[in-house]
Write a structure and sequence with these properties.
Blueprint lengths: L20 H10 L6 H10 L6 H13 L3 H9 L6 H13 L3 H13 L6 H14 L2 H14 L1 H4 L2 H13 L3 H10 L5 H13 L3 H10 L7 H13 L3 H13 L6 H14 L2 H13 L6 H13 L3 H10 L5 H13 L3 H13 L6 H14 L2 H15 L5 H13 L3 H10 L6 H14 L2 H12 L5 H13 L3 H13 L9 E6 L2 E6 L8 H17 L15 H9 L2 H12 L6 E5 L5 H14 L3 E4 L4 E5 L2 E2 L6
Parallel strand pairs: 3-4
Antiparallel strand pairs: 1-2, 1-3, 4-5, 5-6
């Protein structure tokens, strides 16, 4: 057994004071941190504890658990003949404290000293290479594995880490070869490969690996990896389909599974399924930890139900800054500006420090609520009171705050004082204010700035609508022509989703794929007649295609959100709230229609578009017609 040199001179162990390993282990377990260590350290040295390799291994691990890598290094460097156990403790510890490059260096030192690696230390070294994207070093370790033969090549942990290393490095050819050559391929290996494929956006490959796993072998981790991969790659509907299949196979989800499923619900606005997951948490007495609680808060907020989010938030036993950010941001986009600001103040009273994301959320709340002076005060406090340098998102919030309030010249002056270059979002905010407050000259300057940049299609639409609002049809037509000429500004197709009966239904512009399409289009015609009787006139200027007036009217009628709402009207009981999620900004014409439709149908209609929630009720919208 390797013998460790004592850390203190003259501290040779006494036979009369030798303590058994178990008793020394108990002393270490009682030690709450590096500050408590010196007294126990002296007893260990006196008892000869550093002559026990396993005990030193435990001590090195504890030092890293205490986040004291320097203390671990001091102890490790005092060991006269370190063995593989000591190196394993140091390498795994460096990974846990966020220093994978140091872990790789330690592994190289171990090999240079001629210490033969075992499966445990090799696994940790490969993990470090994966985290540090150390491709060359990882391949060298693979070579060491092959030289050692079956002891390492047949080790499940080694194969799993080797698979992870290649997959995280983007070398899926080598990763697939490792996977195919594994002697005992299992669901754990498949889970690793699924996660890595999904991380690189290779969803089809991830699904292929998942489907190749025997149904009886798919455990909770395997299902969770697939659901998470789909949700993170904007395939939320498919993620929820897999979640339902998981329930049908009677595989019990854990908290992480539910967090992933809730993320998919948030993306789609799948309120009913989100509520079912919440009830599942209660039924199985699952504690609301930070991640699960924040996921529920985010889901309820993004489904347009901040009241339910507040209930969950209040029930969370622990609330960190991330949880507060979710709640503040959720209140802001749902038009609860005053409540969002109160929560921002409350988190500071409770001793929590706001983060940059916190300020984005609360500044948006001030903007949507017209709380101009308070918003400016909060922005000013970022550096002076909290030591947070504003980023472009924070500056953009202030520009939007001023533009919404009609303080357009002040917004322009503010842009000139910024420490960052203004972006298109800021110009769009001012242009929106110019349209609302009828400032044609400033609006023209903003259009020039927008079109000088490589803008997205939404900016062209905003510019064309701005000119149309002033009756400048030739200028509006020119914007449309420029949009058509610049193919790179090709418009992302609009898609709206609505959940009915626990199933999410998606609609595109003029969609005729739905099995109830005839009923939907009959309702669409009926809806059109009802809103016309209330004075509705189509805003055809919003249609940028070069087509006749009749075709423009038809193009507006079949927007995806109108189809989704019509489906909701024919599929739910009277008085039920209609919830729709759209991937793009709702156009002005559809916005007008929804206000009138909510009034004539006696329903509340909630639409979440790219920027915020629109709560339509009794002929008005929560955004006050500025979005």
């Amino acid at each position: 057994m390797a013998v460790a040199a004592p850390l203190l001179p003259g501290a040779a162990p006494s036979r009369h004071h030798r303590l058994p390993r178990e008793e020394i282990g108990d002393l270490l377990q009682k030690c709450k941190g590096s500050n408590d260590f010196p007294a126990i350290h002296a007893r260990i040295i006196k008892a000869g504890g550093y002559g026990d390799s396993i005990l030193v291994f435990k001590l090195l691990r504890l030092c890293h658990d205490w986040n004291s890598p320097a203390l671990a290094s001091k102890i490790f460097n005092s060991i006269e003949f370190p063995d593989v156990y000591h190196y394993t403790a140091m390498i795994s510890g460096r990974i846990s404290t966020g220093s994978p490059l140091q872990a790789i260096s330690l592994h190289s030192r171990m090999i240079a000293e001629g210490i033969p690696p075992d499966s445990f230390v090799i696994s940790h070294a490969l993990r470090a290479c994966a985290l540090a994207a150390a491709s060359q070093e990882g391949k060298q370790i693979h070579g060491q594995i092959l030289k050692r033969g079956p002891d390492l090549t047949s080790s499940r942990p080694v194969c799993h880490r080797l698979l992870e290393f290649y997959a995280r490095s983007g070398d899926f050819s080598s990763a697939r070869q490792v996977f195919d050559e594994m002697p005992n391929r299992d669901a754990v290996a498949a889970t690793v490969l699924i996660s890595c494929y999904a991380e690189f956006g290779m969803v089809a490959d991830a699904v292929s690996v998942f489907e190749a796993v025997e149904d009886s072998e798919r455990d909770t981790a395997c299902w969770t990896a697939m659901i998470d991969g789909l949700a993170r790659n904007d395939r939320a509907n498919e993620a929820l389909q897999f979640f339902r299949q998981m329930q049908q196979r009677r595989v019990r989800p854990n908290k992480l599974t539910l967090v992933c499923a809730l993320s998919a619900c948030s993306q789609l606005g799948a309120f009913e399924l989100g509520k079912w997951i919440h009830s599942y948490v209660g039924k199985h007495a699952m504690q609301l930890n930070l991640f699960l609680g924040a996921a529920l808060v985010d889901m309820y907020c993004r489904c347009g139900s901040p009241e339910d989010a507040e209930k969950v938030f209040a029930e969370m036993p622990d609330r960190d800054a991330i949880a507060y950010n979710s709640m503040i941001g959720g209140l802001a986009v749902n038009g609860r500006s005053a409540a969002a600001v109160d929560l921002f103040m409350g988190m500071q009273v409770r001793g929590l420090k706001p983060t940059p994301a916190t300020f984005v959320s609360v500044l948006k709340a001030c903007s949507h609520g017209g709380l101009v002076e308070l918003g400016l005060q909060i922005f000013g406090s970022m550096e002076t009171e909290h030591g947070i340098a504003p980023q472009i998102e924070h500056y953009g919030c202030v520009v939007d705050l001023l533009a919404r309030a009609g303080r357009l010249q002040e917004a322009c002056k503010f842009i000139k004082t910024m420490k960052v270059k203004p972006d298109n979002i800021m110009y769009c905010s001012i242009l929106g204010g110019c349209k609302l407050y009828q400032d044609l000259d400033l609006g023209k300057r903003m259009v020039e700035k927008l079109l000088a940049e490589n803008v997205e299609s939404g900016s062209f639409v905003l510019a064309a609508n701005f000119f149309a609002a002033f009756g400048l049809w030739e200028e509006s037509a020119e914007i449309r022509a420029r949009m058509r000429r610049r193919r790179r500004a090709g418009k992302e197709p609009g898609c709206s989703a609505i959940e009915v009966g626990g199933e999410v239904h998606e609609f595109l512009l003029g969609d005729i794929r739905h099995k109830r399409r005839r009923e939907i289009y009959r309702k669409l015609e009926e809806m059109g007649e009802k809103v016309k009787r209330l004075g509705y006139s189509p805003e055809t200027a919003a249609v940028l295609q070069d087509v006749g007036e009749g075709e423009k009217k038809r193009a507006l009628e079949i927007h995806s959100e109108r189809l989704a709402v019509c489906f909701g009207l024919i599929s739910t009981e009277k008085g039920t709230t209609i919830w729709v999620v759209k991937n793009l900004r709702i156009c002005g014409d559809c916005h007008d229609v929804m206000k009138l439709l909510a009034k004539v149908e006696g329903r509340k209609i909630i639409i979440r578009d790219r920027s915020r929630f629109h709560h339509f009720e009794n002929g008005v919208c929560s955004c006050s017609d500025f979005w």
